[in-house]
Design brief:
The protein is of the alpha/beta class and 309 residues long. It is 30% helix and 16% strand. The protein has a single domain, classed as Vaccinia Virus protein VP39 (Rossmann fold, 3-Layer(aba) Sandwich), CATH 3.40.50. The chain has a seven-stranded mixed β-sheet with strand order 3-2-1-4-5-7-6, sandwiched between helices. Strand 2, helix 6 and strand 3 form a beta-alpha-beta unit. The structure holds S-adenosylmethionine. The site of S-adenosylmethionine has 23 residues, from loops. S-adenosylmethionine binds next to loops.
Length: 309
Protein backbone atom coordinates (compact mmCIF):
# COMPACT_ATOMS: atom_id res chain seq x y z
CA UNK A 1 0.00 0.00 0.00
CA UNK A 2 2.77 2.44 0.79
CA UNK A 3 6.32 3.51 0.15
CA UNK A 4 9.30 2.92 2.48
CA UNK A 5 9.39 6.51 3.72
CA UNK A 6 5.73 6.38 4.67
CA UNK A 7 6.21 3.39 6.92
CA UNK A 8 9.48 4.75 8.36
CA UNK A 9 7.36 7.71 9.46
CA UNK A 10 4.86 5.29 11.01
CA UNK A 11 1.97 6.20 8.78
CA UNK A 12 1.14 2.81 7.47
CA UNK A 13 1.35 -0.65 8.90
CA UNK A 14 4.78 -2.22 8.46
CA UNK A 15 5.14 -4.90 5.82
CA UNK A 16 5.08 -8.49 7.06
CA UNK A 17 8.48 -9.91 8.04
CA UNK A 18 9.76 -12.18 5.26
CA UNK A 19 9.20 -15.86 6.00
CA UNK A 20 12.27 -17.05 4.06
CA UNK A 21 15.76 -15.73 3.39
CA UNK A 22 15.00 -15.43 -0.32
CA UNK A 23 14.66 -11.71 -1.09
CA UNK A 24 11.20 -10.70 -2.32
CA UNK A 25 10.84 -10.39 -6.08
CA UNK A 26 10.43 -6.62 -5.85
CA UNK A 27 13.46 -6.00 -3.58
CA UNK A 28 15.16 -4.05 -6.38
CA UNK A 29 12.14 -1.79 -6.64
CA UNK A 30 12.07 -1.29 -2.86
CA UNK A 31 15.81 -0.47 -2.87
CA UNK A 32 15.25 2.09 -5.64
CA UNK A 33 12.72 3.83 -3.41
CA UNK A 34 14.81 3.89 -0.21
CA UNK A 35 15.61 7.51 0.62
CA UNK A 36 18.03 9.40 2.88
CA UNK A 37 15.66 11.07 5.34
CA UNK A 38 18.21 13.63 6.58
CA UNK A 39 19.08 14.74 3.04
CA UNK A 40 15.36 14.89 2.18
CA UNK A 41 14.52 17.04 5.22
CA UNK A 42 17.41 19.41 4.46
CA UNK A 43 16.30 19.72 0.84
CA UNK A 44 12.72 20.51 1.88
CA UNK A 45 14.14 23.07 4.31
CA UNK A 46 15.72 24.84 1.28
CA UNK A 47 12.32 24.79 -0.43
CA UNK A 48 10.54 26.22 2.64
CA UNK A 49 13.11 29.08 2.82
CA UNK A 50 12.13 29.99 -0.75
CA UNK A 51 8.35 29.82 -0.18
CA UNK A 52 6.50 33.20 -0.15
CA UNK A 53 4.65 33.91 3.05
CA UNK A 54 0.99 32.87 2.99
CA UNK A 55 -1.84 35.35 2.39
CA UNK A 56 -4.71 34.18 4.55
CA UNK A 57 -7.27 36.29 2.61
CA UNK A 58 -6.76 33.83 -0.26
CA UNK A 59 -6.76 30.75 1.97
CA UNK A 60 -3.02 30.23 1.57
CA UNK A 61 -2.12 27.99 4.50
CA UNK A 62 1.12 26.08 4.24
CA UNK A 63 1.72 22.41 4.86
CA UNK A 64 4.19 21.49 7.62
CA UNK A 65 7.68 20.43 6.58
CA UNK A 66 7.64 16.80 7.73
CA UNK A 67 4.42 16.23 5.82
CA UNK A 68 5.95 17.94 2.77
CA UNK A 69 8.74 15.37 2.71
CA UNK A 70 6.30 12.50 2.90
CA UNK A 71 3.87 14.08 0.42
CA UNK A 72 6.68 14.77 -2.06
CA UNK A 73 7.69 11.15 -2.03
CA UNK A 74 4.06 10.03 -2.50
CA UNK A 75 3.60 12.46 -5.41
CA UNK A 76 6.92 11.50 -7.06
CA UNK A 77 5.98 7.83 -6.83
CA UNK A 78 2.49 8.41 -8.23
CA UNK A 79 3.74 10.67 -11.05
CA UNK A 80 6.82 8.63 -11.97
CA UNK A 81 7.52 9.05 -15.71
CA UNK A 82 4.49 11.32 -16.25
CA UNK A 83 3.87 15.03 -16.83
CA UNK A 84 2.19 16.84 -13.95
CA UNK A 85 0.24 20.13 -13.65
CA UNK A 86 -0.17 21.80 -10.25
CA UNK A 87 -3.32 23.93 -10.08
CA UNK A 88 -2.12 26.36 -7.39
CA UNK A 89 0.79 25.43 -5.14
CA UNK A 90 1.54 27.74 -2.24
CA UNK A 91 2.85 24.72 -0.32
CA UNK A 92 5.66 24.24 -2.90
CA UNK A 93 5.18 20.48 -3.15
CA UNK A 94 6.00 20.88 -6.85
CA UNK A 95 9.38 22.39 -5.99
CA UNK A 96 10.08 19.73 -3.34
CA UNK A 97 9.35 16.91 -5.75
CA UNK A 98 11.51 18.37 -8.53
CA UNK A 99 14.35 19.32 -6.14
CA UNK A 100 14.46 15.90 -4.41
CA UNK A 101 14.67 14.36 -7.88
CA UNK A 102 17.32 16.81 -9.10
CA UNK A 103 19.49 16.14 -6.03
CA UNK A 104 19.20 12.39 -6.58
CA UNK A 105 17.44 11.91 -3.21
CA UNK A 106 14.52 10.46 -5.13
CA UNK A 107 15.41 8.25 -8.07
CA UNK A 108 11.91 8.50 -9.52
CA UNK A 109 9.40 11.23 -10.27
CA UNK A 110 7.56 13.16 -12.99
CA UNK A 111 9.23 14.03 -16.29
CA UNK A 112 7.93 17.59 -16.13
CA UNK A 113 6.03 19.79 -13.66
CA UNK A 114 4.22 23.06 -14.43
CA UNK A 115 2.64 25.15 -11.68
CA UNK A 116 -0.37 27.36 -12.51
CA UNK A 117 -0.96 30.00 -9.81
CA UNK A 118 -2.47 33.49 -9.65
CA UNK A 119 0.15 34.64 -7.13
CA UNK A 120 3.14 36.04 -8.99
CA UNK A 121 5.28 35.68 -5.85
CA UNK A 122 4.76 31.91 -6.04
CA UNK A 123 5.30 31.78 -9.80
CA UNK A 124 8.53 33.78 -9.55
CA UNK A 125 9.75 31.81 -6.53
CA UNK A 126 9.29 28.54 -8.43
CA UNK A 127 10.99 29.81 -11.60
CA UNK A 128 13.88 31.44 -9.72
CA UNK A 129 14.48 28.31 -7.64
CA UNK A 130 14.40 26.12 -10.76
CA UNK A 131 16.91 28.40 -12.48
CA UNK A 132 19.25 28.65 -9.48
CA UNK A 133 19.28 24.90 -8.91
CA UNK A 134 19.41 24.00 -12.60
CA UNK A 135 16.10 22.12 -12.45
CA UNK A 136 15.07 21.90 -16.09
CA UNK A 137 11.83 19.95 -15.62
CA UNK A 138 10.06 22.55 -13.43
CA UNK A 139 8.35 25.83 -14.38
CA UNK A 140 5.45 28.03 -13.31
CA UNK A 141 2.90 30.23 -15.10
CA UNK A 142 0.69 33.07 -13.88
CA UNK A 143 -2.88 31.84 -14.25
CA UNK A 144 -6.23 32.43 -12.57
CA UNK A 145 -8.59 29.45 -12.34
CA UNK A 146 -11.52 31.70 -13.30
CA UNK A 147 -9.99 32.02 -16.77
CA UNK A 148 -10.30 29.28 -19.37
CA UNK A 149 -7.43 26.79 -19.47
CA UNK A 150 -5.23 27.13 -22.58
CA UNK A 151 -6.32 24.26 -24.91
CA UNK A 152 -2.64 23.75 -25.84
CA UNK A 153 -1.82 22.57 -22.31
CA UNK A 154 -1.61 18.80 -21.99
CA UNK A 155 -0.55 16.80 -18.94
CA UNK A 156 -0.92 13.22 -17.79
CA UNK A 157 -1.78 14.19 -14.22
CA UNK A 158 -2.94 17.09 -12.09
CA UNK A 159 -2.42 17.93 -8.42
CA UNK A 160 -4.34 20.51 -6.45
CA UNK A 161 -4.47 21.68 -2.84
CA UNK A 162 -7.17 24.33 -3.36
CA UNK A 163 -9.17 26.52 -0.96
CA UNK A 164 -11.09 23.85 0.95
CA UNK A 165 -14.59 25.17 0.38
CA UNK A 166 -15.81 25.10 4.00
CA UNK A 167 -18.28 27.92 3.30
CA UNK A 168 -19.50 26.94 -0.17
CA UNK A 169 -19.91 23.17 0.09
CA UNK A 170 -16.67 22.51 -1.77
CA UNK A 171 -17.40 24.66 -4.82
CA UNK A 172 -13.94 26.29 -4.53
CA UNK A 173 -12.40 22.82 -4.70
CA UNK A 174 -14.53 21.95 -7.71
CA UNK A 175 -13.33 25.00 -9.67
CA UNK A 176 -9.68 23.97 -9.18
CA UNK A 177 -10.52 20.32 -9.96
CA UNK A 178 -12.27 21.41 -13.17
CA UNK A 179 -9.07 23.13 -14.33
CA UNK A 180 -7.01 20.12 -13.35
CA UNK A 181 -9.26 17.81 -15.34
CA UNK A 182 -9.02 20.15 -18.34
CA UNK A 183 -5.22 20.24 -18.02
CA UNK A 184 -5.29 16.47 -18.64
CA UNK A 185 -7.71 16.98 -21.54
CA UNK A 186 -10.30 15.14 -19.44
CA UNK A 187 -8.38 11.88 -19.87
CA UNK A 188 -5.82 11.75 -17.05
CA UNK A 189 -5.65 11.34 -13.29
CA UNK A 190 -5.60 13.73 -10.38
CA UNK A 191 -4.62 14.04 -6.73
CA UNK A 192 -6.86 16.38 -4.73
CA UNK A 193 -5.67 17.46 -1.28
CA UNK A 194 -8.60 18.56 0.89
CA UNK A 195 -9.80 18.62 4.49
CA UNK A 196 -10.45 15.30 6.20
CA UNK A 197 -11.84 15.19 9.73
CA UNK A 198 -14.13 12.70 11.48
CA UNK A 199 -15.47 15.21 14.01
CA UNK A 200 -16.52 18.01 11.66
CA UNK A 201 -19.46 17.96 9.25
CA UNK A 202 -18.21 20.29 6.51
CA UNK A 203 -15.20 18.22 5.36
CA UNK A 204 -17.51 15.24 4.81
CA UNK A 205 -19.93 17.40 2.81
CA UNK A 206 -17.04 18.75 0.75
CA UNK A 207 -15.62 15.28 0.10
CA UNK A 208 -19.05 14.15 -1.12
CA UNK A 209 -19.52 17.26 -3.27
CA UNK A 210 -16.08 16.86 -4.90
CA UNK A 211 -16.66 13.19 -5.62
CA UNK A 212 -20.04 13.97 -7.21
CA UNK A 213 -18.52 16.81 -9.24
CA UNK A 214 -15.72 14.53 -10.43
CA UNK A 215 -18.21 11.88 -11.51
CA UNK A 216 -20.13 14.51 -13.48
CA UNK A 217 -16.90 15.18 -15.38
CA UNK A 218 -16.27 11.48 -15.97
CA UNK A 219 -13.72 11.05 -13.18
CA UNK A 220 -14.15 8.36 -10.52
CA UNK A 221 -12.36 7.96 -7.18
CA UNK A 222 -9.49 5.50 -7.50
CA UNK A 223 -8.02 5.76 -3.98
CA UNK A 224 -7.99 7.82 -0.81
CA UNK A 225 -5.23 8.29 1.79
CA UNK A 226 -6.85 9.71 4.89
CA UNK A 227 -5.72 12.37 7.37
CA UNK A 228 -2.14 12.64 6.16
CA UNK A 229 -1.09 16.29 6.37
CA UNK A 230 -0.96 19.07 8.97
CA UNK A 231 -0.79 22.83 8.36
CA UNK A 232 0.35 26.08 9.92
CA UNK A 233 -3.29 26.87 10.69
CA UNK A 234 -3.55 28.78 13.96
CA UNK A 235 -7.34 28.56 14.40
CA UNK A 236 -7.60 24.81 13.57
CA UNK A 237 -4.18 23.20 14.16
CA UNK A 238 -5.69 19.70 14.34
CA UNK A 239 -7.36 19.88 10.92
CA UNK A 240 -5.76 17.44 8.51
CA UNK A 241 -6.07 16.77 4.80
CA UNK A 242 -6.27 13.65 2.69
CA UNK A 243 -5.11 12.67 -0.78
CA UNK A 244 -8.16 11.93 -2.90
CA UNK A 245 -7.14 10.27 -6.17
CA UNK A 246 -9.38 10.44 -9.23
CA UNK A 247 -9.04 8.98 -12.71
CA UNK A 248 -10.85 9.39 -16.02
CA UNK A 249 -13.34 6.82 -17.21
CA UNK A 250 -12.33 5.09 -20.46
CA UNK A 251 -12.64 7.33 -23.54
CA UNK A 252 -13.67 10.26 -21.33
CA UNK A 253 -11.45 12.68 -23.27
CA UNK A 254 -13.15 11.97 -26.59
CA UNK A 255 -16.21 14.09 -25.85
CA UNK A 256 -14.46 16.87 -23.94
CA UNK A 257 -15.86 20.39 -24.23
CA UNK A 258 -13.78 23.57 -24.59
CA UNK A 259 -12.62 25.20 -21.37
CA UNK A 260 -14.59 28.37 -20.56
CA UNK A 261 -14.17 31.23 -18.10
CA UNK A 262 -16.04 30.90 -14.79
CA UNK A 263 -18.01 33.98 -13.72
CA UNK A 264 -21.16 32.43 -12.28
CA UNK A 265 -21.89 34.26 -9.01
CA UNK A 266 -23.26 31.03 -7.48
CA UNK A 267 -19.94 29.29 -8.03
CA UNK A 268 -17.90 32.21 -6.75
CA UNK A 269 -19.88 32.89 -3.54
CA UNK A 270 -17.81 32.46 -0.33
CA UNK A 271 -14.92 31.24 -2.47
CA UNK A 272 -12.14 32.01 0.04
CA UNK A 273 -14.39 31.67 3.10
CA UNK A 274 -17.61 33.31 4.30
CA UNK A 275 -18.31 36.55 2.35
CA UNK A 276 -14.88 36.40 0.72
CA UNK A 277 -15.80 36.53 -2.97
CA UNK A 278 -12.95 36.62 -5.46
CA UNK A 279 -12.18 40.10 -6.79
CA UNK A 280 -8.53 39.65 -7.63
CA UNK A 281 -7.15 38.39 -10.95
CA UNK A 282 -3.49 38.27 -9.91
CA UNK A 283 -1.39 38.90 -6.84
CA UNK A 284 1.61 40.79 -8.27
CA UNK A 285 5.05 40.71 -6.71
CA UNK A 286 6.06 44.21 -5.52
CA UNK A 287 9.68 43.57 -4.87
CA UNK A 288 11.83 40.51 -4.94
CA UNK A 289 12.20 39.15 -1.43
CA UNK A 290 14.55 36.60 0.04
CA UNK A 291 12.04 34.80 2.26
CA UNK A 292 14.77 33.02 4.22
CA UNK A 293 16.21 36.18 5.76
CA UNK A 294 14.77 38.99 7.90
CA UNK A 295 13.33 41.91 5.93
CA UNK A 296 14.49 45.49 6.50
CA UNK A 297 11.10 46.60 7.83
CA UNK A 298 11.05 43.86 10.51
CA UNK A 299 13.74 45.33 12.75
CA UNK A 300 15.74 48.40 13.66
CA UNK A 301 19.27 48.67 15.01
CA UNK A 302 20.21 50.36 18.30
CA UNK A 303 23.89 51.15 17.93
CA UNK A 304 26.64 50.68 20.52
CA UNK A 305 27.75 53.99 22.00
CA UNK A 306 31.26 54.85 20.87
CA UNK A 307 33.78 55.99 23.52
CA UNK A 308 33.86 59.73 24.12
CA UNK A 309 30.18 60.36 23.27
C1 LIG B 1 -5.64 28.68 -1.90
S1 LIG B 1 -4.16 27.83 -1.45
C2 LIG B 1 -4.78 26.47 -0.50
C3 LIG B 1 -3.91 26.02 0.64
C4 LIG B 1 -2.64 25.33 0.25
N1 LIG B 1 -2.15 24.60 1.40
C5 LIG B 1 -1.59 26.35 -0.16
O1 LIG B 1 -1.27 27.23 0.66
O2 LIG B 1 -1.09 26.26 -1.25
C6 LIG B 1 -3.63 27.03 -2.95
C7 LIG B 1 -2.98 27.88 -3.98
O3 LIG B 1 -4.00 28.38 -4.86
C8 LIG B 1 -3.60 29.64 -5.32
N2 LIG B 1 -4.81 30.34 -5.75
C9 LIG B 1 -5.77 30.90 -4.99
N3 LIG B 1 -6.72 31.45 -5.76
C10 LIG B 1 -6.37 31.22 -7.04
C11 LIG B 1 -6.97 31.53 -8.30
N4 LIG B 1 -8.11 32.22 -8.37
N5 LIG B 1 -6.33 31.11 -9.40
C12 LIG B 1 -5.17 30.44 -9.34
N6 LIG B 1 -4.55 30.12 -8.19
C13 LIG B 1 -5.15 30.49 -7.05
C14 LIG B 1 -2.91 30.27 -4.14
O4 LIG B 1 -2.06 31.32 -4.54
C15 LIG B 1 -2.18 29.09 -3.53
O5 LIG B 1 -0.88 29.00 -4.04
Amino acid sequence: MSSPLAWVLGLFSKPQAPTSKVPPANSEAVERRRIDLRAALNAVSDVVQNRPRPLRIFDQIHMKSGDMVMQSEIVADWADGKTLAFIGDGDAISVSVAYLQAKGILSFGPTHITVFDFDERTVNAVNRFAEKEGISNLDAKLYNVFDAMDPEEEFDLFYTNPPWGASNNGESVNVFVERGIEATRCAGEGMIVIADDDELEWPKQVLASVQMFGLGKGFYVTRMQRKLHEYHLDDAPELKSCNLYVGALPRNGVSRKPSVAIDDAMRLANFYGRSKEPRVRYVKERKRLDYGVAHDDEFELVLLETKGE
